[in-house]
């Protein structure tokens, strides 16, 4: 938090009541630009957000600036390095909300349950979508699966935003609980590729429509899986006013249908750049305006887009590029495994080989059980023999992204988590 506040140098901050002491210390020691602190909850030590609203007067904003002026900064998760602040403009915001009205149309009767952090792109986007369309937003601060199921029952949520891993945990937990989730009619899933077994289980348990969505904080709402014929392994088709191409990782030349490479997009919601980091901006937005997403994927002849994995996570094993996310999904389909993640580590002959980190659901699970489960995947079976590590928890960022770098470093240092 201190880092984000120091980079943006705000004059005013909004907090919940419990954060006042910490924020007051930050103001005095680290971020002197902050002049006002308002609490959205009752707090004896600082004025409330509601008192600020009462003092607000109407102002003329007809000549308030350009559509390309910055209106918001969003911090990245920092999984590939230090967090960066994304600059969003007025034009970006209009585009995001316009696409949301088309791709995710809601009524005032809809109740959206939010478990994503609001300071990330997905949480921010869907909270503004509710404000724009008049739907009710319920922010769930507690992330244990049972608490979320209880909130669906209590609030009669009609829509939920989730990531595949969390959706899978919810579906498995719902089997053994008495909570009523029948109000759910749609579940929007993003942040990672959706395994078929997760979608199948979620539909069976909740009876809701699963809508896949793809985007990044730098460029939100790239695709939506609204078409009922959309394959479960696809993130859908492009939203309006968006262009996409796939380029070869080595030659950087554009590929055609089914060609696998880096996904690049042009869109009106594409960020203006990274705050005070023109070099980082130039690395991902080229001179022709194409944003290089860092995601590895392809599109088919029907225009459906498929995201396989992050390029930085691909395992270069001999001449083959292996996608750890695909391996994760194979392992997670074993009913005795609670969670799993695969990373690449250096190998003298092959360059890199996969190593699997597994969290047991059944204490009696053995390496042989796992190898038997993947016996029909001979390439994976042979590569993982002797390379399976049992750990207590898979490290993740913001409930979603596996911290593969942390896992890789723990393997290399033999400091297994």
Short note summarizing the structure:
With 417 residues, the chain is an alpha/beta fold.
Commentary on this structure:
With 417 residues, the chain is an alpha/beta fold. It has three domains: 2-55, no CATH class; 70-310, Rossmann fold; 314-412, 2-Layer Sandwich (GMP Synthetase, Chain A, domain 3). It contains 13 helices and 24 strands. The strands form seven sheets. A seven-stranded mixed sheet has the order 6-5-7-8-9-10-11, sandwiched between helices. A hairpin with a 3-residue loop joins β20 (337-347) and β21. The longest helix is centred in the N-terminal third of the chain and has 14 residues, at 90-103. The chain is globular, with a radius of gyration of 23 Å. The chain starts with a helix and ends in a 5-residue tail after the last helix.
- Average pLDDT, all residues: 84
CATH superfamily of the largest domain: ANL, N-terminal domain
Global geometry: globular
Uncertain residue ranges: none
Q: How is the CATH topology of the largest domain named?
A: Rossmann fold
- Amino-to-carboxy terminus distance: 26 Å
Strand content: 25-35%
Counting structural domains, the number is 3
Specify the structural class: alpha/beta
Quaternary state of this entry equals single chain
């Amino acid at each position: 938090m201190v880092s984000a506040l120091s980079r943006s140098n705000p004059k005013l901050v909004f907090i919940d009541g419990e954060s006042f002491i910490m924020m007051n210390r930050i103001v005095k020691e680290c971020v002197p630009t902050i002049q006002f602190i308002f609490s959205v909850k009752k707090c004896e030590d600082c004025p409330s957000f509601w008192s600020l609203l009462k003092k607000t007067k109407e102002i003329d904003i007809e000549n308030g600036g350009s559509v390309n002026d910055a209106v918001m900064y969003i911090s990245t998760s920092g999984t590939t390095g230090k967090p960066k602040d994304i600059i969003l403009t007025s034009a970006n915001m209009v585009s995001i909300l316009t696409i949301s009205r088309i791709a995710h149309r809601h009524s005032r009767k809809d109740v959206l349950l939010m478990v994503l952090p609001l300071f990330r792109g997905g949480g921010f986007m869907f909270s503004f979508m509710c404000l724009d369309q008049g739907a009710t937003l319920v922010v769930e601060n507690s992330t244990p699966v049972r608490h979320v199921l209880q909130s669906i029952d209590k609030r009669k949520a009609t829509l939920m935003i989730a990531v595949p891993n969390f959706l899978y945990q919810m579906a498995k937990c719902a089997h053994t609980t008495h909570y009523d989730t029948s109000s759910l009619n749609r579940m929007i899933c993003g942040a990672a590729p959706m395994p078929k077994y997760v979608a199948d289980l979620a539909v069976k348990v909740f009876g809701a429509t699963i809508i896949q969505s793809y985007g990044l904080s730098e460029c939100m709402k790239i695709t939506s899986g609204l078409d009922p014929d959309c394959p479960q392994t696809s993130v859908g088709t492009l939203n309006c006013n968006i262009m996409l191409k796939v380029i070869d990782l080595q030659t950087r030349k554009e590929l055609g249908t089914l060609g696998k490479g880096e996904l690049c997009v042009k869109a009106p919601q594409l960020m203006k750049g990274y705050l005070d980091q023109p070099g980082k901006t130039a690395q991902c937005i080229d001179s022709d305006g194409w944003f290089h997403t860092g995601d590895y994927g392809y599109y088919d002849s029907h225009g459906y887009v498929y995201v396989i994995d992050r390029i930085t996570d691909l395992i270069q094993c001999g001449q083959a590029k292996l996608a750890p996310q695909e391996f994760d999904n194979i392992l997670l389909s074993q009913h005795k495994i609670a969670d799993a993640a695969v990373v690449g580590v250096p190998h003298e002959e092959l360059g890199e080989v996969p190593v699997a980190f597994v969290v047991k659901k059944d204490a009696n699970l053995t390496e042989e059980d796992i190898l038997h489960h993947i016996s029909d995947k001979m390439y994976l079976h042979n590569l993982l023999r002797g390379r399976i590590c049992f750990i207590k928890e898979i490290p993740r960022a913001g409930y979603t992204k596996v911290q593969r770098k942390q896992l890789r470093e723990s393997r290399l240092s033999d400091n297994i988590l």
